[in-house]
Amino acid sequence: MYRPLHDGWTLRADGDPTATPATVPGSVHTDLLAAGLIDDPCRDGNETRLGWIGRTDWVYESAFDWHDDGHERTDLVCEGLDTVAVVRVNGHEVGATANMHRTYRFPVRDLLREGRNTLRVSFRAPYAYAEEQRERHGARPGAYDEPYPFIRKMACNFGWDWGPTLVTSGIWRPIGLHSWSGARLAEVRPLVRGDGVDVHVRVERAGDAPVTVTADVAGTRAEAKLAQGETRAVLRLDVPGAELWWPRGHGAQPLYPLTVRAGSDQWRREIGFRTVELDQDAFRLVVNGRPVFVRGFNWIPDDCFPARVTPQRLAERFTQAAETGANALRVWGGGVYESDAFYALADRMGLMVWQDFPFACSAYPEEEPFRSEVEAEARDNVTRLAGHPSLVLWCGNNENIEGHQHWDWRAPLGELSWGAGFYYDLLPRVVGELDPTRPYWSGSPYSGAPERDVRDPSTGTVHLWDVWNREDYTRYADHRPRFVAEFGFQGPPAYATLRAASSDEPLTPQSSPQKAVDGQAKLLRGLGDHLPAPETFDDWHYYTQLNQARAMAFGVERFRALMPYCMGTVVWQLNDCWPVTSWSAVDGAGRRKPLWYALRRAFADRLITRLDGEIVLVNDTDEEWAGALAVAALDLSGRARAQRSQDVAVPARATLRITPPDVRDAEVLTAELGGKRALFVLAEDTAVAYPPAAFTAGVERADGGLAVTVTATTVLRELALFPDRLDPAASVDDQLVTLLPGESVTFHVATERDLDPAALTAYPVLRCVNEPRT
After folding, report:
1. What is the reported pTM?
2. Strands, E, within 339-390: which ranges?
3. I need a surface site. Which of 209, 459, 516, 755 has the fewest CB within 10 A?
4. Cα radius of gyration (the chain)
5. Rounded distance between C-alpha atoms, residue 14 and residue 124, angstroms
6. Which tens digits make up the pLDDT trace of 31-63?
7. Partners of 58 in the β-ladder
8. Of 178, 193, 224, which closes a domain?
9. How many domains would you assign to the chain?
10. Does residue 192 sit in the same domain as residue 129?
11. Left if phi > 0, otherwise alpha if psi is -120 to 50, otherwise beta: which for 297?
12. Mind spelling out the 3-state secondary structure of 457-508?
């Protein structure tokens, strides 16, 4: 019997008698915000004024009624305490914690009393603990001058190049009492095969009586009897007729309820039958014997305060990923092991999950207490997540091996540990013991062996950050990687997101938080010769969003055209945790940036792109793509300078290269096959003599909003509609559409308001590159 203890909590600074109501699960920041004691940490630079919260000890207290329920045991189960805490029941210390990533269980039956009981969780200031450990073990080099490697806590709490420095404390996951008798299922670890599952079970007993353990799935049942003193069993269930679980775009995602019982205790979860292997040198994921090209996003915590992330919010974010054509999410190593709801949703939607262990961008100490904490959290979470078919890879860390090889760490480290023992020994050993059904990869980027250069693109994974940091995005064309696990280009959030987060009048580029070093200058430098220099905030907002979209579409299409040599492109990043200028496709308020629409085209199952002067047809489906390919070289009026039609057949899961017609006298190249058209402008926009944009536009009511139809009189380059400027709740179904003279497009705007048609079809709501400049 489980009883949540989420009501009646108060929060106070240790030593301060004044308490405020607290929400559990939650955090100090959100409680102080709800009480009106601090300003919104995500607005107007308030984060810099709230650093004291992470340097303060905090106390959560609650009282609850309890009456003897007849069970032999009662445990206090803490699914997430952030982070260094002492837990007391009725004034008695029952345990101490030092790891945000673990679940703790404390026996409290003998401390409970009839009637009123008290529960106190005292949190030590994260900074104080981490800095104390840093002093004890010696400072380590890293990307940021923050002590996050010295506390087992979400690293990005301490600030990142896209995230605020908001160092949290609190009861961030459920807490409650579990009463039981006889035996309980202390651990259930289903290791799935393509034709069955081996269920590893560990029981805890309140007495010595024999225990019968059963497991049922898909009409198959297995049973084991545990005699006195026995605590473990493996139940093998063969299901040869099971339907296989497939990644999105490769088949269906059938799930089967697995039920395990020990005495009166029961565990239940849906599992999927599938196999996953990793071709390590090529870094090619193979699911059910089939190589899968990974089209994915990196995932960061979706909120600065993870307790605010609901299953509904996850569903919205996952849908946004899936609707681009993505089939994978990489849970990045500076965050957390995500909630059960996260992985269950990925199971249902067919989104493969690459799970980093929580180590990122720093050298980490391997001494105690960290070694024991890391092993405990790894065992906890590998066991918790083992049954999810969506989880296809365990990865030891993010960029720490690269840091040791390339970021000048070795001299300041000297003989200090830096994490190698975790990535090459402890973590693969835990995964090998508890979850041998999945591959383990030591880190990313990584080339498959400690002695290999992690930046070698011919094997393993690479992170490409020469673009954005130094190079123009056309530099992607010079890369020939096996698998790109990170690459990105910045753009600001949606206008409505920025407007809600800033009190600036008027808005300026500096109104949007920018955490990347030299980020604003890189945004402008990145425009290069691609787009005009912005003269106003509105131009800055449109051009930098457009440039982000073009840069990432260029990279994704390049890497997909290299299939099957390259078998993965994972964009940095899907989401944001606050309203910031960043690399995300979906901003901190959940609004889709132009990048999202560009990636929907670049991630399409079937893609027409260009590579090294050739047209490339990419067919990532199980069916041949055949028909007449029409290619035309045009001028800006749409007149053909050269054209050709030829029959083509692109095999399933393959690419085909085509030499285009002569384009010397042309300004535009189009290629069309089976109703899919790609249009390429053959010079940079700043070098093209576009006519001033001319068009007609009409607005009509439509289901759920408005239909905006634009008909081009001249070429319209990268036509975009931004209805959130008129209604913050409004969204549009498409963006960045190039029209030739005489062509039309209809944008569908979802809105509950009557928007002014004149405003909806004029600057700065309706934009294109060649609009008249005043």
Report:
1. 0.97
2. 352-356
3. 209
4. 28
5. 9
6. 999 999 999 999 998 999 999 999 999 999 999
7. 13, 123
8. 178
9. 5
10. no
11. beta
12. CCCCEEEECHHHHCECHHHHHHCCCCCEEEECCCECCCHHHHHHHCCCCCCC
